[in-house]
Amino acid sequence: xxxxxxxxxxxxxxxxxxxxxxxxxxxxVLEHRLTVRATALIPVGLLAAxxxxxxxxxxxxxxxxxxxxxxxxxxACLLAxxxxxxxxxxxxxxxxxxxxx
Amino acid sequence: xxxAQNHDADPDPDADRAVIRDALGVGIGVGxxxxxxxxxxxAAGLSVWxxxxxxxxxxxxxxxxxxxxxxxxGGSPVAGALTSVLLGGRNVxxxxxxxxxxxxxxxxRWAAAHLVIDESTAMGVTRPTSHQARLGFYWTGIxxxxxxxxxxxxxxxxxxxxxxxxxxxxxGAVAAAFLGLLWPRLDSxxxxxxxVTGVVLALLLxxxxxxxxxxxxGGLSAVALGLVWGGRR
Lengths: 101, 233
Hints:
The structure holds two protein chains of two kinds.
Chain A: H1 3-24, H2 33-56, H3 67-79, H4 84-100
Chain B: H1 3-6, H2 13-32, H3 34-43, H4 48-58, H5 61-72, H6 77-87, H7 90-102, H8 106-114, H9 118-125, H10 130-161, H11 170-182, H12 189-205, H13 213-232
Helix pairs in contact in B: 2-10, 3-4, 3-5, 3-10, 4-10, 5-6, 5-11, 7-9, 7-10, 9-10, 12-13
């Protein structure tokens, strides 16, 4: 098996195990205040880092290119409450357009 | 919640229909963007089968996008899987909040667990009775599961056929997807500060670390700072 398949397998097993754990553990185990706050913030920190890297990371350098136009379009769409799917299409179109010119 | 509410003493067909209608609306809307995940898989170097396996077996959107995003940006599958599973951690708490409504044992628990995601929980926990919570949860979860997997397959096959994903701006769309998943969580000062810090730290780390590392290290450092800030309040 390739490394990529092992990665896919790890994601599948890990994510399912977490879902099953939620339905199986007694609630008191995880209701500690710090755990609850950390769990709410982990997606925020990781998603923010993912946005940054996806929008502006090149080969070991920060680059400004057409992707930033996609992110700017996404911000405008989110402020205007455009639904998820049209937002992605507009962001892709903006990125492609800026790349073309 | 009182006992009277918890037991399903008063079936209310109108309310039930409203719950199912809402669940179908959310389920179809969310399920359709599986097509974007599907298209991104091959763009990141995954095969059509690997892309479909993630939707079928991991079935939790943000984690799937994260794995593909890290791999696409040159990160190792290990870094991708770590980011992905860390993001999936919130599903533990969704499960805890749904468990008392679902009351599932044995194989039913194993099946219900697979449906524990953002949207099914959101459409379930807000209901006034456990009966309606179950309706919202299962109708949303099953609708998304079916459509998400069909659209993933369609997107993956189409994405595989598109030679150059960057020519149609797919990389910009991935950044937009992460932003769209992040946006509703920025509802107060601490998450906003964590998000800004996460962006800054990740970009600062890019020149000095292997691809994938800025996401995990930058993102989690921002979370640690957020816990300190939040704790002072």
